[in-house]
Write a structure and sequence with these properties.
5-stranded antiparallel sheet; disordered C terminus; single chain; Rossmann fold; 5-stranded parallel sheet; alpha/beta; Beta-Lactamase; Helicase, Ruva Protein, domain 3; 16 strands
Length: about 450
């Protein structure tokens, strides 16, 4: 390996996407991750101000470098201008003399004239979401645990995938498991694997998600549903960086980054004795709070546009326009199931309606008649829902009333799986019978 390549590899290991400039602001060293962000090769010896800013009339980044000031700026990607990158420039000093600059880079979404940004599959115009994207990009660069708090259907797995894709582990595996989907004994085997003969049917050694995610990222969805005994075992994995498969005697070293998600407040779970405090602190190094869709209504027309573009490619019907009345109804609707529910609503509209125009009548009744719905469900704004759990019972009961007691239809309305709805009903003491549900 040539010495310059060795230096570049070392810099990439230490700083990720980075570029070193000499005292004349010319590129001296570039990491592979930096060229990935930029979308092409960066010629050695090229002037950094000219490369990054070209002939644009506004060149604050170039001007700050020329003036010798540390700077952070978001600029169009030099290769095509279609994406945005965030560049931080810090001086390299030796014996109190500046001898060069270190530039570090990270993604900042896609450029768009109407203020819309695409960040790893998530579209937004909302300022809070853009701040969230910036936080995700910064959190991804640090190899620490991330806990995503958000409602069902808000896109927690997309957030976890974004953290993985923006991190130095991006070339490693990304594994995901829903901790609420399996009983404890099966979940332990799925997470940690098992040895041959550990139980009836264990005819061979089987790797768990922890081992399968080695040198990558493991996403634990609904982590608050982990039984206490598995919480203790997960804590041990985080402390020892080794996994003990079910029925095995010796631990197996693993190098895994954990991103977890929950719709619950873990601190409340700790206070209730359902979650270990020591594990919460291990998982919650970087907390991420994902806004509900009703908290960013300005994103609804944008998401409708993007989803329709995608769904036109796979449906028999092609929609080219959304009626104003239909868009108004969608914007007013509180979306208890968030973006997932919006997708379901549009899927319904494609099936029910015909023609190139999506009309108000093509929307599900609970959306089209949102103004006439019971205020306990659809007439409240975001301020009425300060916590995703605090109104669960009211929302579930309202959905059951609206669907005539059908749990299957209520689950669809709420954007939940039937299993999740059944579990929440049991936790909240909502009886399964139709008669009780309608009270």
């Amino acid at each position: 390996m040539a010495m310059a390549d060795l230096y570049s590899a070392a810099l990439g290991t230490a700083a990720g996407a980075a570029i070193v400039l000499d005292e004349d602001l010319r590129v001296a060293l570039v990491t592979g991750a930096a060229e990935d962000f930029i979308g092409g090769a960066v010629p050695r010896g090229v002037s950094a101000p000219a490369f990054f800013c070209g002939g644009r009339s506004k060149r604050p980044f170039a001007e700050a470098l020329a003036a010798g000031r540390a700077v952070e700026a978001t600029i169009p990607r030099p290769s095509d201008g279609k994406a945005m990158i965030r560049v931080r420039a810090n001086p390299i000093v030796r014996d109190d003399v500046r001898v060069g600059w270190l530039l570090t880079l990270e993604g900042a979404g896609e450029a768009n004239d109407d203020g819309a940004v695409l960040f790893h599959g998530m579209w937004t115009r909302d300022a809070k979401m853009k701040d969230l994207f910036r936080l995700l990009a910064r959190a991804a660069a640090e190899d620490v645990t991330v806990l995503v708090r958000g409602e069902t259907g808000a896109g927690k797995e997309l957030v976890a995938q974004a953290v993985h894709d923006c991190s130095p582990r991006a070339k490693g595996p990304f594994r995901a498991i829903n901790c609420a989907a399996l009983p404890g004994n099966l979940l332990e085997s799925e997470l940690f694997g098992h040895a041959k003969g550990a139980f009836t049917g264990a005819v061979r050694d089987t790797l768990g998600h922890m081992q399968l995610a080695h040198r990558g990222t493991l996403f634990l969805d609904e982590v608050a549903e982990l039984p206490l005994d598995l919480q203790a075992k997960l804590l041990r994995v985080l402390e020892t960086r080794s996994v003990l498969p079910v029925g095995a005697r010796d631990g197996v070293p693993v190098d895994v980054r954990i991103v977890s998600a929950t719709h619950r407040a873990l601190r409340r779970e700790v206070e209730a004795g359902r979650f270990r405090a020591d594990l919460m602190y291990r998982l919650r190094v970087i907390p991420i709070f994902l806004p509900a869709l009703r908290e960013r209504p300005g994103d609804i027309p944008l998401l409708v546009e993007k989803l329709v573009e995608t769904m036109n490619k796979t449906n028999r019907r092609t929609i080219s326009h959304v009626a104003e009345s239909a868009m108004e109804a969608l914007t007013r609707y509180p979306f208890p199931g968030n973006v997932r529910e919006l997708k379901n609503i549009l899927a319904y509209a494609y099936v029910v309606g015909d023609g190139a125009r999506l009309e108000l009548g093509h929307l599900p009744p609970e959306v089209a008649a949102v103004d006439s719905l019971a205020p306990s469900f659809a007439g409240e704004d975001a301020a009425s829902f300060p916590d995703p759990e605090s109104h669960d019972e009211k929302r579930i009961r309202a959905a059951l009333v609206r669907t005539g007691g059908s749990r299957e239809q209520a689950a669809k309305l709420l954007g939940l799986s039937r299993v999740t709805l059944w579990r929440r009903m049991r936790e909240l003491g909502i009886a399964a019978s139709r008669k009780r549900a309608l009270k």
